[in-house]
Amino acid sequence: MYALRPKLEVITREFLLFLLLAPPFSGYAVDNSDRNAMPKINQTALLNYRFRIPPLHEQRRIADRLLRLRAKLEELRRLQGEVEAELGRFVPALLAKAFRGEL
Q1: In a 3-state reduction of DSSP, which class is residue 93?
Q2: Which of these, 14, 20, 37, 84, has the minimum number of CB atoms within 10 Å of its CB?
Q3: Burial class (CB in 10 A: 0-12, 13-18, 19+), 45
Q4: Which residues have C-beta within 8 Å of that of residue 41, sequence separation ≥ 6?
Q5: Contact 58, 68 (CB under 8 A)
Q6: Is residue 13 within 8 Å of residue 62, measured between CB atoms?
Q7: DSSP H or E run through 90
Q8: DSSP of 13-76, one letter per residue?
Q9: Each residue's pLDDT tens digit in the chain (103 positions)?
Q10: Structure pTM?
Q11: Contact by Cβ (8 Å): 51, 19
């Protein structure tokens, strides 16, 4: 694990976070990994990763959009969990009624 301290006049923390979570970086990290089971990129390979950096205002806009999408995704996952729990209660109750001839 490496501590990264972005130059805030060049790149925002949030944009850097999403950049490092994105598939292109993950693929690069795996391709430059020292291990097979748990990929580990060495510091030289990490520092050699090249990417384009949009202007700060665009980075903020992109990061804000991704943060809002992540919040929506978390809400959808929460709702999905509620629906699954409700279905878990509903199906046995429905089957019980069907077997008792109440349908």
Answers
A1: helix
A2: 37
A3: middle
A4: 28, 29, 32, 33, 34
A5: no
A6: no
A7: helix 56-99
A8: HHHHHHHHHSHHHHHHHHHTBS-SSS--B-HHHHHT-------HHHHHHHHHHHHHHHHHHHHH
A9: 788 899 999 999 999 999 999 999 999 988 888 766 676 888 899 999 999 999 999 999 999 999 999 999 999 999 999 999 998 888 888 888 889 988 8
A10: 0.72
A11: yes
Which of helix, strand or coil describes residue 79?
helix
Q: Which residue has the tokens 């992109």?
A: 62
Structure tokens at 22: 């994105």
